[in-house]
Amino acid sequence: MAACEVAPFGLFHSALFSFGGLFSVTFQELLGDNSVRQPFSTLKTFKMCGLKLPEFSAIMLAGELWELNCTHLKVVKVEQHLKGSAFAFQAECMNFVKILHLYNRTHLYACGTGAFHPICGFVEVGQRVELDFKSLEDGKGKSPYDPNHTAASVLAGEELYSGVATDLMGRDFTIFRSLGLRPSVRTEQHDSRWLNEPEFIDVFWIPESENPDDDKIFFFFRETAVEGSQGLGKQSFARIGQICRNDMGGQRSLVNKWTTFLKARLVCTVPCTDGSDTHFDHLHDVFLLPTRDKRNPLLYAVFTTSSTVFKGSAVCVYHMNDIRRAFLGPFAHKEGPNYQWVSYQGRVPYPRPGTCPSKTFGTFSSTKDYPDDVIQFARNHPLMYNPVLPHGQRPVFLQTNMDHIFTRIAVDRVAAADGHYDVLFIGTDIGTVLKVVTVPNDSWQNMKELLLEELQVFKDPSPITSMQISSKRQQLYLGSRTSISQLSLHRCGMYGKACAECCLARDPYCAWDGTTCTRYLQNTKRYGQGSAYRLGPVTFGGQSSSGIQKIYGVEGSSTFLECLPKSLQAKIVWTYQKTRSDPQKEVLLDSRVIRMERGILLRSVQRKDAGFYYCHATEHGFTQGVLHLQLEVIHAQQADSLSLSREEESTQPFHRKLWYQDFLQLVDHPNLSTMDQVCEQLWSRKSHQPKKKPPPLSPLFNIKSKSQKWKHLEEKQKGRSRRTHEMPRAERAPRSTDIW
């Protein structure tokens, strides 16, 4: 696993900065500005069902129905239906809700483990929330027996499609259809080519065309790969599986079994120049982002590495065209003396396995009419040879060697002044949420991700297991095994009180309205021309709001120009102009002008170095003036005389003095560890060297007469030679090196 595979993507800091960078915000800070609410925290550890109710008002937790509104959660007592009261106080014997769907305007459909006896029923939601006990039915094939087993489902019309383990031991996994008018259909039992120890992640209902008979159900899961490399042990691959919604099973073979089931590997990798790839194979979550074309949504998926040595997380995005292309490609086939997996080169029967029976792609009205060779081929070749590749052939966002991994994702498409932006909310296993926005890099065809915030959403850090976004309420609902939190999607007020700061935050939720940084709303007259900014490249003026800072440099010595931008990821550019009327030119680096971590160092300052210096911070297409300096260069003798005259004029015992020669020798000394020795040498040399007559100074400096000066020094020298019994003097404070 080469370092070049991930190095360009893993550099993200956790420091607090505001210029186009990451804000690391604690839970207490979020509470302080009312950005997060944690209305409920259990005393025990429970397993929460997925928050799968967009814009609805209820979730299920540990067998109780929690009603959700904009401000708080309140519990509505629903009697738990347990099999055997003797086990009621054992954690595993509770009714862990695993499936919860909005069935219609008045009812939810819920399924739970039922104390190792899966059970399902309808919950009436109205003025009162009640469980209809008359509707309780067997939940086998819908909910797992064991609360530790994963389950995923989708309600398509009145039909429930679920991926679940159908036995107590978790060995018989199936993709199952129930409810509705069509017959119950499942995958082939005990055939590792179909499902091999899968863990189901999510299910989506996606139309294929305008004809509803072409609709398909897509399952996302991870499983032990049958085509994995021999000698490497068990390998877990991410999968995407498809079935036709109108699949009725076979007539003579695959009776009540899927005849249109196909699966393909879901790839999320970072390619390297040496031909090797870093694979993120452990799928954790998938989010479907609708687009204007309901047949072509975007699918965002969260992955982690399976390696115990290399730790990393990635987000890949997939287009439906790429998914359909993989399912229309060659089938995987095992042949040869070593039974290797290769692309099937033989004849594929008609209609092609995986095709839905409809008038759009053929003349068959039901899968029961399919020829036997089609059914037999579908039974033996469920795996596709080509994988599904992500958009751009690589992750859109990843982190490596961090103290956390990604667990959940939710995406919101935000309308800004110049277009639409996808904002990613990524949950982690330490209870934080990363807020990431996709921005154009030079053009809209070349997008890149910018990490805006890292938010601690739980008081006690715990893995985020559920996440649901509400664009209508502008809230993000998060769940862990112990808590529920409600987080605002935007916090525009924190981006400062200036237009530049608001714009450089790069948050598409926010815009400058002329007075404050506030939530951007389309179709309003609140924003003047130029106020609702674009997220594309923008340049701001070079002069900082703090004005010009004047500094002095001594000719022949070194001068350091310090500039510290707010963002640790910003690139610093220095420009220079001799006078205000001259054009600005970029400062060129050489052996005398050296770039340092905190600025630039001018060695052996010359008269020609005097002028105006501008520090600019550039990041993600934005340029902001950070600092404006005016450098004046003085002669070394003038600096020496000036420091001496300042010492003479000092009558206050605590008056600050300027000792430029001493200070410059300390700055120029090559070994800072010997600073104490240098100080001792300076003091020793000053106490023994004869006093020299200072050179004449410019009228600019107000200096006393020679007689007064020497008389003053003689009195000081005499004072030092007296021996008295006065109290010992305190140690001399360090000399000031403040700028004039």
Automatic annotation (TrEMBL):
Residues 1-489 form the Sema domain. InterPro entries: Ig-like_dom, Ig-like_dom_sf, Ig-like_fold, Ig_sub, PSI, Semap_dom, Semap_dom_sf, Semaphorin. GO terms for molecular function: chemorepellent activity; semaphorin receptor binding. One of its GO terms (cellular component) is extracellular region. Residues 537-634 form the Ig-like domain. Its main location: secreted. Gene3D superfamilies: Immunoglobulins, ligand-binding face of the semaphorins, domain 2, YVTN repeat-like/Quinoprotein amine dehydrogenase. Residues 711-740 have a biased composition (Basic and acidic residues). Pfam families: Sema. Keywords: Disulfide bond, Glycoprotein, Immunoglobulin domain, Secreted, Signal. SMART domains: IG, PSI, Sema. GO terms for biological process: axon guidance; neural crest cell migration; positive regulation of cell migration; semaphorin-plexin signaling pathway. PROSITE patterns: IG_LIKE, SEMA. CDD domains: Ig_Sema3. SUPFAM superfamilies: Immunoglobulin (SSF48726), Plexin repeat (SSF103575), Sema domain (SSF101912). It is found in: Secreted. Residues 708-740 are annotated as: Disordered. The keyword Signal applies. The keyword Secreted applies. Belongs to the semaphorin family. This is Semaphorin 3B. It comes from Naja naja.
